[in-house]
Design a protein that fits this description.
Layout (H helix, E strand, L loop, with lengths): L1 H6 L5 H11 L4 H15 L1 H25 L4 H4 L7 H5 L9 H17 L2 H20 L5 H23 L6 H18 L5 H17 L8 H25 L2 H5 L1 H25 L7 H6 L5
Length: about 290
């Protein structure tokens, strides 16, 4: 708690607002935007890998939280909670920090793909600031943050190792395993958000096998498709929240299916629309038949 008290020695309403804004960089909404843009507009293959790695890591994080079930700083000393808004970003138990882990996972893997000095510096800065914000806001102990960073980097290491080993089943096996494995985990070892995490994981595992997406087209087309994808993804999220009965959203199969469909909007419908609207290149096979280079 000493480090938290030391950081809060510089506390002010302005700094509270800044730190709360920084901590939102590790929120669910931020990752929806980052993953959609990465998959739709930057690099479909690596965007898919980012999504699968991040979602698998978050599921592991929830299993670890349930196993350790540690208190958060504001539960030990309520005076360290900077605001109700800060506490609202911290459901569940403390160890390991989901914000620190998710930020380390996404930005470390993205930096490994980008291999640009400026991007690596940006990634380190974002990870450091989000981790610091969790301490300042009084929602995590230092051990929670260090544990989250360690798990996040370990997750990235495993992901890169599997990619370098070329561990990938065939297309049919990917579709079957990509759907049934996360569904089985959700039913047998459910967590608070396993429907969201594993349903979305299944969408990124299966969707790109059903409709191939390429991001080698003009920047304007990719940007337009990314904007469309974000509108459709958030529309599906908000629409399903408003229209589906609570009993369906809370049921095991219903929650999984909901996020499988929402994820499918980004991984199946959007790539199809990109081709139909000619915002993205034709599939390789079609391009080859037409005699044009990819």
């Amino acid at each position: 708690m000493g480090l938290i008290h030391a950081l809060q020695g510089a506390a002010s309403p302005a700094l509270d607002a800044i730190m709360l804004g920084i901590t939102q960089l590790g929120s669910e909404q931020a990752y929806v935007v980052l993953l959609v843009v990465a998959f739709v507009a930057v690099d479909a293959e690596r965007g898919r890998s980012l999504a699968l790695t991040l979602l698998a890591g978050y599921y592991a994080n929830q299993l670890l939280k349930a196993a350790f079930f540690t208190q958060r700083p504001f539960q030990i000393d309520p005076s360290v909670a900077r605001s109700a808004a800060a506490v609202a970003t911290a459901p569940g138990s403390g160890f390991p920090s989901g914000h620190a882990q998710g930020t380390a996972t996404f930005w470390a893997l993205a930096a490994a793909y980008a291999r640009r000095g400026w991007f690596t510096a940006l990634a380190v800065t974002v990870v450091a600031l989000v981790s610091l914000s969790r301490l300042y806001l009084g929602v995590h102990l230092p051990v929670d943050v260090v544990g989250g960073l360690a798990v996040g980097l370990a997750t990235v290491g495993v992901s890169l190792y599997l990619q370098r080993r070329g561990v990938a089943p065939g297309r049919a096996a990917t579709v079957v395993l990509g759907l049934l494995t996360p569904l089985a985990l959700h039913l047998l070892a459910p967590t608070e958000d396993s429907g969201l995490l594993l349903g979305s994981f299944a969408a990124f595992a299966v969707g790109p096998e059903l409709v191939r997406h390429r991001t080698s087209g003009p920047v304007a087309g990719r940007a337009a498709l990314a904007a469309l994808a974000l509108a459709l993804a958030f529309g599906a999220l908000l629409g399903s929240s408003a229209l589906l009965p609570e009993a369906v959203k809370r049921s095991a199969l219903g929650s999984f299916a909901r996020y499988l469909v929402i994820g499918g909007v980004g991984t199946v419908l959007v790539p199809w629309l990109g081709r139909a609207l000619r915002l993205t290149p034709a599939p390789l096979a079609a391009a080859a038949r037409g005699g044009t280079a990819a």
